[in-house]
Design a protein that fits this description.
Chain lengths: 335, 662
C-alpha cells in the first residue's frame, strides 16, 4: 500500500514538472478576466495564491459589479473585445449572467466560446448552469461551496446528539424545499424525527417574518434539540429575529453558511472556507490553461474538508459547551 | 545415529542452550530497563497533549466543572494506547474531575500540570499499564525459547549433515567398523569416500572384511558342490553368528549430501507459512463475483496447483537436465520468486511471483527426490527417503515460528527477502555439497492416463485416494495453513503467535509418525489407522464449537489434526503400495505412487480456495467444521468400503483381498 502511494506521488511530481516546463516555454502570461459580486473576498486570495504557487504567470483583469447585475451586459461586451484566455466568476448571479442557462438557446448575450471557471455557486444543476456535475458539457466548470447535508447533521450530532431536528424554511424557495426533502429522507438512517415549519407567505406571495417567533417556540415545544438554519435566502435576512427567539427557548442553532455564525448568532456552523473554494476553482483553471483540457470534461466539485465554527459566547449563554476534543479542530469565535 | 554422533549432538545442544539461556536472560533484562523509560516519555507526551486541550477549553471560557465529553475523550486515548491504563484530570486538591480507563493501586503515574494562568492548580495524571511491559518481556521470552529450540534442531541437522561426509565421515566410518567388529559383527560396510589416514584405515578394514566374505562365499560354493550338508550347516551357523557376507544398510553417503540444500530451501518456504494469507489479503483488490476470502486464496491455489501439476512432468525433466543443475535452477527461481513477492504491490504481481516460486519449489522437490533415488539402490531407498522427508519435516517445524517472529519484528515484505536469501543459500549449498555426477538409477516413467484409469478401477484404491489422501491434504492446507492464520490475524494475534501455533502440526508429525509407522505392519491395522486418523483429524475441528477465539482451542484442533495425520500418513502410503499390487491390470509401483501424489496434491491445491469459499459464505467456525466433517465422513466411508470389499470378497474381479501379510 505504502509503495503505491509513493508511486502516485512520483507520478504527480513528474506531472507538475512537465507542466512547469510547458509554462516556461510560453512567452506571454495567461490573460484572466475576473468578475466579482461584492468586492474582493478570500476566494480571490485562494485562487491567486494557488496559481502563484504553481508558477503560472497571469495578467488579471478585475471587475466588480457591487451586487448590481445590470452591469453584466457591459462587461460581456468588454470580454468579447479583449478575448481573455479564461473568465472567472463569483457566485450564482454573476455566473448565470455571464454563461447563461445550459438549456436556453445561446446568443450573443452570453459567453459560450471562452472557458469560464466559477466559484461559490451553491447549486449549478438547479440554477441550470450545467446539465451534469461530472461532465458539464459546455464551456463552464468550477467549485461548489456547500457542505453535504448529511455531513452537517453528523457534525451537529457530535456536538450534541439529537432525536428531534427543527427546521424553518421558505416554501417558495426551491433550494430550501429540496434540502428539507433530503432531511426527511435521512430520518430513518440517522435516527431522528424532523420537526418542520414553513415561513408564512404574505398576500403578495412573498415570505413574511410575522409570527416567526411563535414558529420557533412551536418547534422547541415539539422536542427539537437543534434548529437547523439551512441556506435559505429569506431566512438569512431574519436571523436577528429567529436566533434570539431560539435562544429564549434554549434551542441551539446550527448554520450552513459562515455568515450564520459570524453575524447571525448561530451556535455552530460547518462551512467551506472561501479561501479553499478559491484554491479548488484555481485547480480547475490550471487544468484548462496549462493542460489545455476542455472545461466541459472537467467535473464540478465541492471540498472534502470543512471548517467547524463555534460561537463560544452563545455556548456560554446556553450553557451548552462542545465536547472537549472538538476544540482540537474547531475554530472558536469568542465575544 | 551411533554413539559418537549422539554424544556430540548432546554436547552441542547443551552448549548452545547454555549460551542462549545466558543471552536471553541478558536480553530480557535489558528490554525491561530500556522499555520503561520509553513508556514514561510517551505517557508524558500524551499527558501534555491532554493538558493542552484542557487549557484550551478553559481559555475559550468553558468552566472547569462544565466540560463535556472529557471522560469519553480520555477513554478513547487509553483504548488507543495499550501501554496506558488510565488518564485522570485532577483538580486543585488532587481530586479526580474526569477520568478514563481503570486506575489500579500498583500503577505508576506520570503527572503533567495544565499550563496557563487560569489553571495552575489542575493537572493530568497518566497511569502506566504494569501488564504491558510484562507482556512484552513475556513475548520476548517465548520468542527466545523458540529460537533456542529451533537452533538446537538446526544444530542437530548440521551434525547429521556433516557426519557421513569428508573427514568426519571417515572418522565415523572407522568408529563404526571397529565398534561392529568388537561386537562380533563382521558385515560389510558402505565404502568411505575420503582420502587421508581415516579413509585409508576404513578401506583397510573393509579389505579385510571383504576378503573374509569372499572366503566364506568360496567355501560355501565349494561345500554346495560337494553336497556336504553337515559342514554346510556348520558354516551357516558360523556365518550367522558373525553375520558374514551380509551388508550394513547404512545411510548412503551421497544421498545425505542432499539434506543441507533441501532443508535450507524448504526452510525458506516454511518461513512464509504463518503470514502468507495475511500478506495476500493486504494486497488483494476486489474481483467481481468472488468473495474477498476466495480472492485471497487465489495466489496460494496457483502455487499449490503448479506444484501438483508440475511434479509428474518434472521427474523426467530433472533427470534429463541433471538433478544438480535442476536443483540449482529451482533454488534460483525460488529466490527470484521470494524477492518478487516481497516487492509485489498488487494481486496479479503477487500471483506471478508466487507462480515463479512454485516452479522453483517443484523443481527442487522433484530433483531432490530424484537425486535420492539415483543415489540409492532399492535396499538403501527407504533410508534415503528418510533423509529427504526428515529435511522437509524439520524445516516445517522450524520455519513457521521463526518466520512469524521475523515478520512481526521486521515486516512481512522483509521476511520474503530473507526467504529469498535462504533460497540463494540453498543454491550455494547445492553447488558446494552435491556431487557433480551420480549415475542415475533406472528412472521412473511419467504417469499416463492409462495408469490413472487402471489405478482408479480398484474400488479400494480409489476410495483410499479420494476419500483419505485428498481430504487429508485438503484439510491441512485449507484449515491449517489458510483459515487459521487469517482467523488469528482477524482476532488480533500477531504473526509470531501464528507461527508458534503452526509449529504444533509438524511437531506432532515429527514425534508421532515413526511411532505409528512401526504399528502399521499389517494391512488390517493400516486400514484401521488410516480411517481412525481421518476421523480424529476431521472431528477435531468440532472443537471450534467451544470458543473459536481461544488460542488453546485452535491449538488443540491443530494438535488433533497432527495426531490424526501422524496416525494415517505412513499406513496410507503403505496401503497404496499394497492395493496397487493387487490391481486387476498391473501398473508399475512407481506409477501407482505417481497417481497417489498427484491426487494428494490436488487436495493441497483445492484447500485454500475451498477454505476461502466457505469462509466467505459461512464464517470461520462453520467453514472449519464443514471441511472437518467432510474429512471424517471420507475416512468413515473408506473404512466401510474396505470392510465391504473384504466381506464380499472381490477376489473374483481381481481386486482381491490379500491375506494379512507380515
Amino acid at each position: 500500500m505504502r509503495r503505491r502511494h509513493v508511486l502516485a506521488l512520483t507520478a504527480g511530481g513528474a506531472g507538475t514538472l512537465a507542466a512547469g516546463r510547458l509554462w516556461a516555454r510560453r512567452d506571454e502570461p495567461f490573460r484572466i478576466y475576473r468578475i466579482t459580486y461584492r468586492g474582493r473576498t478570500a476566494v480571490e486570495e485562494g485562487f491567486d495564491d494557488y496559481l502563484a504557487a504553481n508558477g503560472v504567470p497571469v495578467v488579471m483583469t478585475e471587475r466588480d459589479i457591487g451586487r448590481d447585475t445590470t452591469l453584466l451586459p457591459g462587461l460581456i461586451d468588454e470580454i468579447r473585445e479583449v478575448r481573455p484566455d479564461l473568465v472567472v466568476t463569483w457566485g450564482t448571479p454573476v455566473t448565470l449572467g455571464v454563461a447563461g442557462r445550459h438549456d436556453e438557446a445561446h446568443d450573443d448575450r452570453h459567453i459560450t466560446d471562452i472557458p469560464i471557471v466559477f466559484a461559490l455557486v451553491s447549486a449549478p444543476l438547479r440554477s441550470a448552469i450545467v446539465p451534469s456535475l461530472e461532465r458539464p458539457q459546455r464551456n463552464v466548470t468550477g467549485a461548489v461551496h456547500v457542505v453535504p447535508t448529511e455531513t452537517q447533521l453528523r457534525a451537529m450530532a457530535s456536538y450534541r446528539p439529537f432525536s428531534h431536528l427543527g427546521v424553518l424554511y421558505t416554501p417558495t424557495e426551491p433550494n430550501s424545499v429540496t434540502i428539507v426533502e433530503e432531511l426527511a429522507e435521512l430520518q430513518p438512517r440517522l435516527g431522528y424525527t424532523l420537526v418542520q415549519r414553513r415561513i408564512p407567505l404574505g398576500p403578495d406571495g412573498m415570505p413574511t417574518a410575522d409570527g416567526i417567533e411563535e414558529l420557533v417556540a412551536e418547534i422547541r415545544a415539539e422536542g427539537a434539540e437543534w434548529l437547523y438554519l439551512l441556506p435559505d435566502t429569506f431566512l438569512g435576512t431574519v436571523y436577528d429575529r429567529v436566533v434570539p427567539a431560539a435562544l429564549a427557548v434554549d434551542l441551539p442553532t446550527f448554520g450552513a453558511v459562515e455568515l450564520a455564525v459570524r453575524r447571525g448568532g448561530a451556535l455552530v456552523a460547518l462551512v467551506s472556507r472561501y479561501y479553499s473554494v478559491g484554491q479548488l476553482a484555481a485547480s480547475k483553471a490550471l487544468q484548462i490553461l496549462a493542460q489545455g483540457r476542455n472545461p466541459g470534461d472537467i467535473p464540478i466539485e465541492t471540498l472534502s474538508r470543512f471548517s467547524l465554527i463555534i460561537n463560544m459566547a452563545l455556548a456560554r449563554e446556553l450553557e451548552l459547551y462542545p465536547p472537549i476534543d472538538m476544540l482540537n479542530y474547531a475554530e472558536v469565535v469568542t465575544g | 545415529m551411533n554413539r559418537v554422533q549422539v554424544r556430540l549432538s548432546v554436547a552441542l545442544v547443551a552448549v548452545l542452550l547454555a549460551a542462549l539461556t545466558a543471552l536471553s536472560l541478558r536480553a530480557s533484562g535489558r528490554a525491561e530497563t530500556l522499555l520503561l523509560p520509553e513508556i514514561t516519555v510517551k505517557a508524558e507526551t500524551v499527558g501534555r497533549s491532554v493538558a493542552g486541550l484542557v487549557d484550551r477549553a478553559l481559555e475559550v471560557g468553558i468552566p472547569v466543572d462544565r466540560m463535556v465529553g472529557v471522560d469519553a475523550y480520555l477513554q478513547g486515548i487509553v483504548d488507543a494506547h495499550p501501554d496506558l491504563a488510565a488518564i485522570t484530570v485532577r483538580g486543585a486538591g488532587g481530586d479526580a474531575l474526569y477520568a478514563g480507563g481503570v486506575a489500579r493501586p500498583d500503577m505508576a503515574w506520570v503527572d503533567v500540570p495544565v499550563p496557563g494562568e487560569a489553571a495552575t492548580a489542575l493537572s493530568v495524571s497518566v497511569g502506566l499499564d504494569p501488564a504491558f511491559a510484562r507482556e512484552i518481556v513475556y513475548k520476548l521470552w517465548i520468542d527466545l525459547a523458540i529460537v533456542m529450540v529451533v537452533t538446537a534442531l538446526v544444530a542437530l541437522e548440521l551434525v547429521y549433515i556433516s557426519f557421513g561426509v569428508g573427514r568426519y565421515g571417515a572418522i565415523e566410518g572407522v568408529e563404526q567398523r571397529l565398534s561392529a567388529v568388537k561386537h562380533g559383527d563382521l558385515r560389510l560396510h558402505p565404502p568411505v569416500e575420503s582420502t587421508g589416514v581415516f579413509g585409508d584405515a576404513a578401506r583397510r578394514i573393509d579389505a579385510r572384511l571383504q576378503a573374509l566374505a569372499d572366503k566364506v562365499r568360496a567355501l560355501r560354493a565349494d561345500l554346495a558342490a560337494r553336497a556336504d550338508g553337515v559342514r554346510q550347516a556348520a558354516l551357516d551357523a558360523v556365518a550367522g553368528r558373525y553375520r558374514l557376507g551380509e551388508s550394513v544398510g547404512g545411510s548412503p553417503l551421497s544421498a545425505i549430501s542432499i539434506r543441507a540444500p533441501l532443508f535450507v530451501f524448504m526452510f525458506a518456504e516454511e518461513l512464509t507459512r504463518p503470514f502468507l494469507p495475511i500478506y495476500i489479503q493486504g494486497l488483494s483488490a476486489p474481483i467481481a463475483g468472488l468473495s474477498p476470502a476466495v480472492v485471497t486464496s487465489l495466489p496460494m491455489v496457483v502455487f499449490l496447483a503448479i506444484v501438483a501439476l508440475a511434479q509428474p512432468v518434472l521427474g523426467t525433466v530433472t533427470e534429463r537436465a541433471g538433478r544438480r543443475r535442476s536443483l540449482m535452477t529451482g533454488a534460483a527461481l525460488g529466490a527470484a520468486g521470494y524477492v518478487a513477492t516481497g516487492f509485489a504491490y498488487d494481486l496479479l504481481g503477487l500471483t506471478i511471483a508466487r507462480a515463479l516460486t512454485a516452479i522453483g519449489f517443484a523443481l527442487v522437490f522433484v530433483a531432490a527426490q530424484g537425486f535420492v533415488i539415483d543415489a540409492t539402490d532399492t535396499r538403501q531407498r527407504a533410508r534415503g527417503m528418510a533423509v529427504f522427508i526428515g529435511a522437509i519435516l524439520v524445516a516445517g517445524l522450524c520455519g513457521p515460528p521463526i518466520g512469524g517472529i521475523l515478520a512481526e519484528r521486521l515486516g512481512m515484505a522483509t521476511t520474503f527477502l530473507i526467504a529469498g536469501g535462504f533460497a540463494v543459500a540453498s543454491l550455494l549449498l547445492t553447488a558446494i555439497a552435491l556431487p557433480r555426477t551420480v549415475a542415475p538409477a533406472k528412472h521412473a516413467a511419467m504417469i499416463g492416463w492409462r495408469d490413472l484409469s487402471r489405478s482408479l478401477s480398484s474400488v479400494r484404491l480409489a476410495t483410499l485416494l479420494f476419500l483419505c489422501a485428498l481430504p487429508a491434504k485438503l484439510v491441512l492446507f485449507s484449515v491449517g495453513f489458510f483459515l487459521v492464520p487469517l482467523h488469528m490475524e482477524a482476532t488480533g494475534h500477531d504473526q509470531a503467535a501464528i507461527g508458534r501455533l503452526l509449529m504444533i502440526y509438524p511437531l506432532a508429525m515429527v514425534v508421532l509418525v515413526p511411532v505409528f509407522a512401526s504399528l502399521a505392519d499389517r494391512d488390517d491395522r493400516r486400514v484401521l489407522l488410516v480411517a481412525s486418523g481421518g476421523l480424529l483429524a476431521g472431528l477435531g475441528t468440532l472443537l471450534v464449537l467451544g470458543d473459536p477465539e481461544n488460542v488453546f482451542v485452535l491449538a488443540a484442533m491443530l494438535l488433533l489434526l497432527g495426531l490424526g495425520q501422524a496416525m494415517s500418513i505412513a499406513p496410507q502410503s503403505a496401503l497404496v503400495g499394497a492395493f496397487g499390487k493387487k490391481l486387476a491390470t498391473p501398473v508399475s509401483e512407481g506409477a501407482v505412487y505417481g497417481v497417489f501424489r498427484l491426487i494428494e496434491r490436488s487436495g493441497s491445491a483445492l484447500g485454500p480456495v475451498l477454505g476461502g469459499l466457505l469462509l466467505g459464505l459461512y464464517g470461520f467456525s462453520t467453514a472449519v467444521m464443514l471441511i472437518g466433517l467432510a474429512v471424517a465422513l471420507g475416512a468413515a466411508l473408506f473404512g466401510l468400503t474396505v470392510m465391504a470389499v473384504r466381506r464380499t470378497g472381490e477376489a473374483a474381479s481381481g481386486d482381491g483381498l490379500e491375506k494379512d501379510t507380515p
